[in-house]
Give the backbone structure.
Amino acid sequence: MSVNDVIKKSILESDMYNQAISMSTLFTIAVDLIIALLMGLVIYAVYKKFFSGVIFSRSYAITLVGMTVLTCMVTLAISTNIIISLGMVGALSIVRYRTAIKEPLDLLYMFWAITTGITVGASMYILAAAGAVIVIFMIAIFGRKNHKSDVYILIIHYTNDEIGDNIIRALGKVKYTIKSKTLRKDECELTIQVTCKSDNMIFTEKIRSLEFVTDLTLVQYNGEYHG
């Protein structure tokens, strides 16, 4: 018997092909989808609790739940019907996702949702639970914020280049790194990364009181700086 004959026989004898679904199959599908939904809600809760970006995106968090359930559904369809599995491979191969991921850690949550949906769809509940425990433990350990000090980006505009040294002296014992200095015709812009406690902002008043300083901007820094 050739390979083509084996495939044809498996298709014709498939319960899904004949639209005959047993009660055990329906029970398995229902259990897998419910567990996928619960695991998606766990991922949603973890993402919301440990989010450390600038703006929390609720739509992205809800997408993680839907992605878990839909991936589980796709896995169930592929595992029960060879015709659908071949169609899924062809359909998904032409899909292109254009949404930019701003936070690198969001990729972890996205792949966590996808792999959870796959493992739950394959009824590998222990593997899905073990993976969730490991990921949550890793996020809790490495995703904790350092409350001792925060990182800020300090942007200063001034009209006299000679007071640059006075600005540095005004920082005092604050840990700093000069990121960039832009010289324009009538104005200078100095960008400094500073590390300090949120209740230790005295240096901002000292810098603002300097002569020739026009304005000062202090922004909390969460991502990577390229410059």
Remarks:
- The radius of gyration is 28 Å.
- Strands lie at 150-158, 175-183, 188-196, 213-220.
